[in-house]
């Protein structure tokens, strides 16, 4: 992996892939769609003929969104869906990423950028009086360390719409939804979200970015967090921002 990918904090292994699958299911239910209805309606009428994954016609490739777009990818895409880049981007990168997406799209093509407002991630009481001490005690140094690394910056998420506009997109709009729009998902959200907080904690502790914390201490507090989260007595909650916009003719 090249140096350009270094700012990304989470691991790229099978455990993380399984966590992302669970997260994907939670996001789909709570956002209410995968592709925004306004993009779906604007797609060409023959969109139902797009190849399905099971036909073996989907191509996968790697693209570093922070690098200049290669010539052969320029103006080639109808829709570009970015999701959850918050762990990878520093403040200066968000605008650059949006500009590169503009280069990738055909005239009239759409961007859908969904990101999570993790700076406002909080542990909420479902059962009045239930302890949230371990959860908030672990979250606080994790957010502090990420912020010191110029990641998870609140203005990046709340400013997502303007930075997409500033990159040159037209007719922009924003949906804001919450991770517990469907309250029944609180228990399953707790599992993948706690895994994310724990993994970030361990990575940051190993980097020496969380003064006074070791990987073992993160593990010990995690055991107490899991106890607090059991039966969703308390639950992790945060917002999603979904910005859509169109490339001009
Ligand atoms: C939290 S995961 C989200 C994965 C997936 N987009 C989803 O929503 O389930 C963040 C992803 O961003 C990717 N990423 C980080 N930096 C990137 C960059 N500069 N260009 C492209 N992708 C990047 C990581 O490889 C990782 O797959």
UniProtKB/TrEMBL annotation:
Tree of life domain: Eukaryota
InterPro entries xref list: SAM-dependent_MTases_sf
Gene3D superfamilies: Vaccinia Virus protein VP39 (3.40.50.150)
Protein name (Swiss-Prot/TrEMBL): Methyltransferase type 11 domain-containing protein
Protein's organism: Baudoinia panamericana (strain UAMH 10762)
Lineage, uppermost ranks: Eukaryota, Fungi, Dikarya, Ascomycota, Pezizomycotina
